[in-house]
Every structure is written in C-alpha cells, then in structure tokens.
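Each record in this resource describes a single protein on a pair of labelled lines. An example record follows, reproduced without changes.
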Amino acid sequence: QLQLVESGGGFVQPGGSLRLSCTASGSEIVWYGFGWFRQAPGQERTAISYHSTGAEAVYYADSVKGRFTISRDNAKKTIYLQMNNLQPEDTAVYYCAAARSTGSNWMARDKYIYWGQGTQVTVSS
C-alpha cells in the first residue's frame, strides 16, 4: 500500500517558479515509478512527467519539456517537480501517481495504482 500527498502549490506570476513535492507513506518507494499529472477545470487529467525506478529514466510531455524537472529522493520517500518559467496555461491541479511499471506508456492513467489528492497551481498576473 502507498499513500501520496502533494504539496508546494500556490499562486505565482508568469515566469515564476514553484517546486511541488509528493511525499509517500506506507511501502518503500523504490519499487515504483512516479508520474506527475495535471488537470485544469473542465479538462482531462494529462500526464506531464515520469520518473522510473531501476533505470531511473525520466520523461516529459512536450508542453513542459525544458521548463519542468522531475526528481526523487528515495530516502525521504519524496518525488519533486521543479517548475520554471511558469505560464498561465500551466494553471491546474497537479497530481502525483505511482506505478509498478508503465513500459512505454507512461502517459496512460490506467498504469498508475496510487494517486494523491492534488495541489493547486495558479499562474496569473
């Protein structure tokens, strides 16, 4: 079993930065890969980044590539999403999720077993 809690969301002006954290409790997180998703009002929940276990590969959606960085600290049981140069279109609730294995389908929501409740990110002037 794994429980996930996101934190670090808030209000930021365009061009600003935030670092989101996803803290896990329960099982050791070394057994899981972790994804970050986001969902704006009336929109579908969309994968934006993934950090694997084992090979420790990372992946990004085109919409955030070059601006966001995913990382993990297994000892702290925490996954991070550093978000730089934030833009209004980044406004959404951000979720972390854990998967045993995604293969090549890291963007597929049905690959993830556990989900956090989300943290709001608002980018506005």
